[in-house]
TrEMBL record:
Source organism: Devosia sediminis
Pfam family, one: Pantoate_transf
Name of the protein in its database record: 3-methyl-2-oxobutanoate hydroxymethyltransferase
Residues at the active site: 182
Family: Belongs to the PanB family.
GO CC term (a single one): cytoplasm
Catalytic activity from the UniProt record: (6R)-5,10-methylene-5,6,7,8-tetrahydrofolate + 3-methyl-2-oxobutanoate + H2O = 2-dehydropantoate + (6S)-5,6,7,8-tetrahydrofolate
Gene Ontology BP annotations: pantothenate biosynthetic process
Keyword Translocase: no
Quaternary context: Homodecamer; pentamer of dimers.
Length: 266
């Protein structure tokens, strides 16, 4: 099957078909979510938390993203692939361009995603001018966690709401083909969605975005800590793994013993 393109995504928005997006970080998970029919796969820098065991996404490197995005590309066949630009890889438009060129050349993904609002407008323009497909990301932007002072809902007061409206408009004008709204109050997310031509992709932002994205581990219950409240797990894969491994350990010890003792080597 042919891969979904940015034109297909634009067409879905035009005909009112919701866009289903999930993260993946490795070839096996990419193959599974791809076969199950997601439209877009995000190689998120949530890799830092989910796969690498960091507290935040800040330690994730461009090389980390490239290694995992290349694996996701090898595992998938149909979904449009988006790779997050990690913290420190987009410090100015030229650096961002060089980072994004590496991502596209070394992984084969179709698009990159950049966190940030008005400060990122010149960067998005620069990448788009070079033919790179860009997803924007506003609201809760985890790379800004220390500046924001934690993870919380955005757009609650009028100043914050007006800022988000402005950012969404400016990033669309800069040429982004989609925009992630993370933890934006649902009423504002719905309003921004109606005000744009490009699709909004919501996470923790209510039902009325043009699409949804989730960390795949939160969707399938493949976690050791509780997922965010907006992620409703549809399976308990952690429990399945623990049960299977527990059985394996038990059987190995109970059914294979007693094993003849080794020759003493003293
Ligand atoms: O890194 C990530 O997983 C993300 C989303 C969930 C939007 O950026
Ligand atoms: Na991310």
């Amino acid at each position: 099957r042919k891969r979904i393109t940015t034109r297909d995504i634009a067409a879905m928005r035009q005909r009112g078909e919701a866009i289903a997006m999930l993260t993946a970080y490795d070839a096996t998970m990419a193959a599974l979510v791809d076969m199950a029919g997601v439209d877009m796969i995000l190689v998120g820098d949530s890799l830092g938390n989910v796969v690498l065991g960091h507290e935040t996404t800040l330690p994730v490197t461009l090389d980390d993203m490239i290694r995992h995005a290349a694996a996701v590309k090898r595992g998938s066949a149909r979904a449009l692939l988006v790779c997050d630009m990690p913290f420190g890889s987009v410090t100015d438009p030229q650096t961002a361009l060089e980072s994004a060129v590496r991502v596209l050349k070394e992984t084969g993904v179709e698009a990159v995603k950049i966190e940030g609002g008005l400060a990122m407008v010149p960067t998005v323009e620069r990448l788009v001018a070079h033919g790179i497909a860009v997803v924007a990301h506003i609201g809760l932007t985890p790379q800004h966690v220390h500046q924001m002072g934690g993870y919380y809902m955005h757009g609650k007061d009028e100043a914050s709401a007006e800022r988000l409206r402005q950012e969404a408009r400016a990033l669309e004008a800069a040429g982004a083909f989609a925009i992630v709204l993370e933890c934006v109050t649902p009423v504002l997310a719905a309003e921004i969605t109606r005000s744009l031509t490009i699709p909004t992709i919501g996470i923790g932002s209510g039902k009325d975005c043009a699409g949804q994205v989730l960390v795949v581990n939160d969707l399938i219950g493949l976690n050791t800590t509780p997922p965010p409240s907006f992620a409703k797990p549809r399976a308990d894969v952690a429990a399945i793994i623990k049960a299977a491994v527990g059985d394996y350990v038990g059987e190995t010890k109970a059914e294979r013993g007693p094993i003849p003792l080794p020759r003493r080597v003293d």
